[in-house]
C-alpha cells in the first residue's frame, strides 16, 4: 500500500511537469534555424540561444546591458504577423527593463545600427501566454538603434 501511494504521487508529479512549463529550447532552435535558412539570413548564434543579424553596423557608441537606449523596432512572429511596432522615432528605455533577448541583443549594435534579433521563448516571454503573445513563441525584431543615452 505504501508503495502504491508513492507511485501515484510520482506519476502525478511527472504528469504535472509536462504542462506549460515545457522546455521549448529544442523546438525554438529548429524554428529559428529553419527561418534563417528559408530567408537566407547570415545570423550569428549566441551562447544564450539568441540569434542576431547586423544589416548596418552603425558608427556610434555601443550600449551595455545597463544602458538606456532609443530604438525603433517592429516585432513579429516567424509567420510574419506583426504584434508590436514603434514609430520611426522609436522609444527610449533602460535595457535592464526589457526581455532578456533585447537586453543581450541590443548590445551587439552600435548607434545607427540596424538588424534583426531572433529571440527564443526563454529569452522572450517564456512558456506562458503573456500580453497576447502565445507561450513558447519565437519573436523576431527588426531594430534600429537610434541612440545610446549616457
TrEMBL record:
The superkingdom listed in its UniProt entry is Bacteria
Q: What class of enzyme is it?
A: isomerase
- Catalysed reactions, as listed in the record: [protein]-peptidylproline (omega=180) = [protein]-peptidylproline (omega=0)
What Gene Ontology molecular-function terms does this entry list? Answer: peptidyl-prolyl cis-trans isomerase activity
Which PROSITE patterns does this one have? FKBP_PPIASE (PS50059), PROKAR_LIPOPROTEIN (PS51257)
The residues covered by the PPIase FKBP-type domain are 66-149
Classification via Gene3D superfamilies: 3.10.50.40
Under the heading Pfam families, the entry gives:
FKBP_C
Q: Which UniProt keywords apply?
A: Isomerase, Rotamase
Q: What is its EC number?
A: 5.2.1.8
Name the InterPro entries for this protein.
Answer: PPIase_dom_sf, PPIase_FKBP_dom
**PANTHER family reported for this sequence:** 39 KDA FK506-BINDING NUCLEAR PROTEIN, FKBP-TYPE PEPTIDYL-PROLYL CIS-TRANS ISOMERASE FKPA
What family does the entry list? Belongs to the FKBP-type PPIase family.
Q: What is this protein called?
A: Peptidyl-prolyl cis-trans isomerase
Which organism's genome codes for this protein? Ancylomarina salipaludis
